Amino acid sequence: MANRYALRMGRPHSWTVFYVFTGQPVELKQQSMVGMNTCDAHAMVDRLNSRDIAAGEGGSEAPRKRLVDGSRRI
């Protein structure tokens, strides 16, 4: 399984966590993951990718997927 999330350096010591399939910054709790320090950015990418792996293995944190029409799959 390919990782969905990666890091991109904006300036020295300033990182953006982004979704690799769109190139857009990740947004969590209405906050974009841009301008992060190195340690926090790496930790966030690790956490997000680990959550995806757990979800793929039937983990309890499996995110609900949105269908094309915007409704949620149960």
Given the structure, what is the number of helices?
1
Q: How far is it from the N-terminal to the C-terminal residue, by CA?
A: 22 Å
Largest β sheet strand count, sense and barrel closure: 2 strands, antiparallel
How much helix, percentage-wise, in residues? Answer: 25-40%
State the assembly state of the protein chains: single chain
**Global structural class:** alpha+beta
Query: What is the overall shape?
Result: globular
Q: Segments where pLDDT lies below 50 for 5+ residues?
A: 59-67, 70-74
Beta-strand residue fraction:
15-25%
Strand order of the largest sheet: 1-2
Radius of gyration: 14 Å
Q: Average pLDDT, to the nearest integer?
A: 82
Describe the structure.
- The chain is of the alpha+beta class.
- Helix content is 26%, strand content 23%.
- It has one helix at 38-56; strands at residues 5-11, 14-19, 27-28, 31-32.
- The strands form two sheets. Strands 1-2 form a two-stranded antiparallel ribbon. Strands 3-4 form a two-stranded antiparallel sheet.
- The two termini are 22 Å apart.
- Mean pLDDT is 82; it is low at 59-67 and 70-74.
Write the SSE topology:
Elements: E1 5-11, E2 14-19, E3 27-28, E4 31-32, H1 38-56
Antiparallel strand pairs: 1-2, 3-4
